[in-house]
């Protein structure tokens, strides 16, 4: 009756979200990859890819689950696949180079959005803590 057995499939494809140390290691590997292939990529693509890695470096700390999954995907799949695909096709004219730049700009927009969302969450946490402390330690009309 083995044919009746149901196999459990993973809920997500690819790698699960990584912890802060693993994210830093993946980021370092991506930076090395970009630097090693900088002579094969258009200069503007190298600059944009390094901008992406710089913004991702700001996000390599403790993250919520959504941001962690997004950063993991960017580091381990989206950015490397974009670069590897271009390198496979080669710089055969303006078409692939323009497409690469468009893709990298889209990825840069995404990482900047993630960074801004993380900053907004941090600012909200500070305001919430401030309100809590003010309420807890201020003199209340109910104090005797």
Structure description:
The chain has one domain (15-133). The protein contains 4 helices and no strands. The chain has helices spanning 20-36, 43-58, 65-89, 94-137. α2 packs parallel to α4. The chain starts with 19 loop residues before the first helix and ends in a 7-residue tail after the last helix.
Please give the largest β-sheet.
Answer: none
**Beta-strand percent range:** under 5%
Q: What is the count of DSSP helices, taking H or I runs of 4+ residues? A: 4
Average pLDDT taken over every residue = 83
Roughly how much helix do the residues carry, as a percent range? over 70%
> What structural category characterises the helix and strand content?
mainly alpha
Shape: elongated
Q: What are the low-pLDDT stretches, counting only 5+ consecutive residues below 50?
A: 6-14
Radius of gyration: 22 Å
Instruction: For the record, give the distance between the C-alpha atoms at the N and C termini, rounded to a whole number.
Output: 75 Å
Whole-number count of domains = 1
Element-by-element helix/strand order? HHHH
Could you give the count of β-strands?
0
Annotate the secondary structure layout.
Blueprint: H1 20-36, H2 43-58, H3 65-89, H4 94-137
Please describe the structure with a list of short key phrases separated by commas or semicolons:
single chain; about 140 residues; elongated; mainly alpha
In short:
The protein has 144 residues and is an all-alpha fold. The protein contains 4 helices and no strands. The longest helix has 44 residues.
């Amino acid at each position: 009756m083995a044919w009746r057995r149901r196999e459990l499939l993973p809920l997500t494809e690819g790698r699960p979200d990584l912890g802060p140390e693993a994210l830093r290691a993946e980021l370092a590997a991506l930076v090395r990859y970009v630097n090693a292939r900088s002579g094969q990529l258009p200069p503007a693509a190298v600059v944009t890819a390094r901008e992406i890695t710089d913004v991702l470096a700001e996000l390599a700390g403790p993250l919520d689950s959504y941001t962690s999954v997004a950063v993991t995907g960017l580091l381990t799949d989206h950015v490397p696949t974009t670069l590897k695909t271009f390198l496979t096709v080669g710089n055969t004219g303006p078409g692939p180079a323009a497409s690469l730049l468009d893709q990298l700009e889209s990825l840069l927009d995404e990482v900047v959005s993630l960074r801004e969302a993380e900053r907004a969450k941090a600012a909200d946490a500070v305001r919430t803590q401030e309100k809590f402390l003010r309420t807890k330690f201020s003199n209340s009309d109910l104090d005797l």
